[in-house]
Specification:
With 259 residues, this protein is of the alpha/beta class. It is built from 12 helices and 5 strands.
Length: 259
């Protein structure tokens, strides 16, 4: 009699739900066999659902493929809201019809999966560009303009240069055709790829800053105004990477000048 381990290995080769092997194995009354059948069916269904999700996230790209554009760059940023650190933008050109399992808006990807999906994007992308604007630039020109500068910097690094840009809710004054997409990182795979690259890049920068400026919990909060971060500000004061145009940093700096 075929062992359950052998049946599991056999089922692993099945890729569709209507495979006749399922009907054949259903005749086996062993509980372990029935569990393996159910498990494999669920796994195939999950793969089909994931493929459908990725397919729907390629709708903007597919429209552009039909118009003759294949070098499409997704552009996104991370770090507009934090009190410290830079704003980081990424631009990513994926191959035509590229689907990366698990790729989504970086906020929807479990933290433990970030590095793995970031690596998958790096492995499959035709080109990746990263733009970083530090807190001094943010304070000089404001966060909105600094975001645009970071995006332009990321796009300038792409080779080959893109034929079209898909940007998360932003329009850039560049001589490249572009589409601004609301919640783009959840609706376009190219933008989602840029989102995870920007997120992992910025998180790594903030981990380095955490070593340089301990006591603010930058490795965990990435510069956002959490209780531990605000506690650090209260005890240790403002660091050179804090954004002095953001509150409460602005008031702290002002109070220090007056005292």
């Amino acid at each position: 009699m075929t062992t359950i381990k052998e049946i599991r290995e056999l089922l692993a080769t099945v890729k569709d739900l209507d495979n006749p092997l399922f009907l054949e194995l259903e005749k086996d009354s062993r509980t372990g066999v029935q569990k393996e059948i159910s498990k494999r069916r669920k796994s195939i269904q999950a793969e089909l659902d994931e493929d459908l999700r990725l397919e729907s996230m390629l709708s903007y790209e597919k429209e552009l493929y039909e118009q003759g554009s294949t070098l499409i760059a997704g552009v996104d940023e991370v770090g507009r809201g934090p009190l410290a650190g830079p704003v980081v933008a990424a631009a990513v050109i994926l191959p035509k019809n590229c689907k990366i399992k698990g790729l989504n808006d970086s906020k929807k990807i479990p933290k433990k999966k970030h590095a793995e999906i970031f690596q998958a994007v790096q492995d499959q992308a035709l080109s990746i560009g990263i733009g970083i604007m530090d807190n001094q630039v943010i304070d000089q020109v404001n966060i909105y303009e600094a975001t645009k500068l970071a995006m332009k910097e990321a796009i300038s690094q792409l080779s080959p240069q893109p034929e079209h840009l898909l940007i998360d809710a932003m329009q850039l004054d560049l001589p490249i055709s572009q589409t601004a997409i609301i919640k783009g990182d959840a609706n376009s795979l190219s933008i989602a790829a840029a989102s995870i690259v920007a997120k992992v890049t910025r998180d790594n920068l903030m981990k380095d800053y955490d070593k340089q400026y301990p006591g603010y919990d930058f490795a965990t909060n990435a510069g956002y105004g959490t209780a531990k971060h605000l506690e650090g500000l209260d005890k240790l004061g403002v660091t050179p990477i804090h954004r002095t145009s953001f509150e409460p940093i602005k008031s702290l700096v002002s109070a220090n000048k007056e005292s």
